[in-house]
What we know:
six-stranded antiparallel beta sheet; Rossmann fold; Beta-Lactamase
Amino acid sequence: MAQIDKYIQHLLRFEALSLMVTSNGPVVARLASGAEKASTQTVDHALLVAAVHESAPPGALADIRASRMTKFQYPAEAPTVSVEVTPTPGAWKLLLSPLPADQIPAAQRRNEVFPSAHPAASMPPSSLRGVPSPSRPSIPALDRPPRVEPARPASIDPARVPIAESPRLSRPDLARVTMRPESPRESSPGVAPRSPEPTADRVSFSPRSLDPAPAVTSLEDDRQGDTSGIDLLLRQMTRLGASDLHLATGRPPLMRLHGEIKPLPGDHLPLSADALRALILPTMRPASRKEYAARNDADYAHEVPGVARFRCNVMVERRGPSAVLRRIPVDIVSAEELGLSRAVLDLCDLPKGLVLITGPTGSGKSTTLAALIDRINSSRKDHIITIEDPIEFVHKNKRCLVNQREVGVHTDGFKHALRAALREDPDVVMVGEMRDLETTAIAIETAETGHLVFGTLHTRTAPSTVDRVIDQFPAERQPQIRAMLADSLKGVISQTLCKRAGGGRVAAYEVLLVTPAVSNLIREGKTFQLYGVMQTSRQVGMITQHDALCELVKAGKVDVREAYTRSFSKADFRTAIHHAGITLPPGLVVRDG
Length: 593
């Protein structure tokens, strides 16, 4: 059910002459007696925008985008309600009023979408001749909301939208479920509490009444629709300095600020599945929509001009659709601003070889990789090809020619694009993720054949990265891969993101450089000795994670407790801190992880 249909139900239920919905304000019903009744809760601006966009016809949407007041009848196929929209920045008004009887098609009147109290309403169609129509239909009090046909969004073809029902709710229950904060005694898995029935004395209807919702949406439509609703939230989270926007069915918008999940400030109400889809679907390309329909999740990029690009993931979970949008700054942070060492910067000057950036999800690998590519773009005269899923940072042509390809949009996959890159005269190739054996093998071959290749892996430490690459291959191929990696690998930068003292975040970089000694250890399968080599090779630019964390603590950039929490080897970190003359707070447990 479209959100606007819920408002229409209340218009009918209270026999109102009109229903006014305003951004961040209550829903106000004007009754025939002249009295007004208001809801006790307000409507979030983003929810109102989404409700309008999923119900307005294309012509009305054009007026809305131009910030002009517009009117249209709803539903389009059999109109029964007049809709007036007044869009102003940050504050929209939606006015709903029943159409006069003479404007409602006869077939529609016979279907009693607006049941009339006039005696003719109960007569067979043939007896309606000669019976005058009332100037306005009289709407009787209803024990339950009348049936209202769902809306057809302007940019969405509902005939192509398969719906997956919630496994825990029967269909009759779906129409009555209300999403509201659960109390411990009301909560039960999969079943939301019911809203109270409204009475004539007090309007208790709530714009929070949300369907738990159909789960999967599939669209063939090329049109992306209007993104003003989601863009409003993205602008707000960007102003606050948040890294991610989280949208979940039944919850208000959330953000990740300095590593912590917090509510997005403002009077935001919980999002229904319909409202969430109306916010997200306009940002998706047709290919992403097909992927979402097939797999119940999709990755893609969305840009708010003048603000930032956002890496988006949309998924389906038990409550309905959910989305996470990560902010990617428009401006690329320089390698110097990130605090990358001279040894790491020198990797950008290599003519060939493989350089790996590793770390857990959300550790800033994309930011570091973009900084290194930007440094090459600013200092060399080469051809750079990037293969990403999706494209995150946009690189303009500086001294280099930069071609950026997005998986699912410009190519079928990493391995296909990487093979094609060998025939495209590249000097530098950046692989967003080395996800599978074949992509990894091609990346190593590309580095061996005279190209500088950058890639990422989700490993926690530099030494474990070498093992991860080799262990992907069958045992019979591992000696060959070990020899190839010993010759082609030039460096591994493994990073850990920490909360900066005073606000923000800063990365600790573990660096493994492939010297002749390291190359021999890789070739001979003695990767367990790499850690010892790193500890004794600080003079050439290598550094372990616990030493990198210790340096941040000594510089006052990271609190010792935060560094201790982020360290993978707690015992080694305690030793490094002790040698630096720093005392650990009491009560910290020695446990690696």
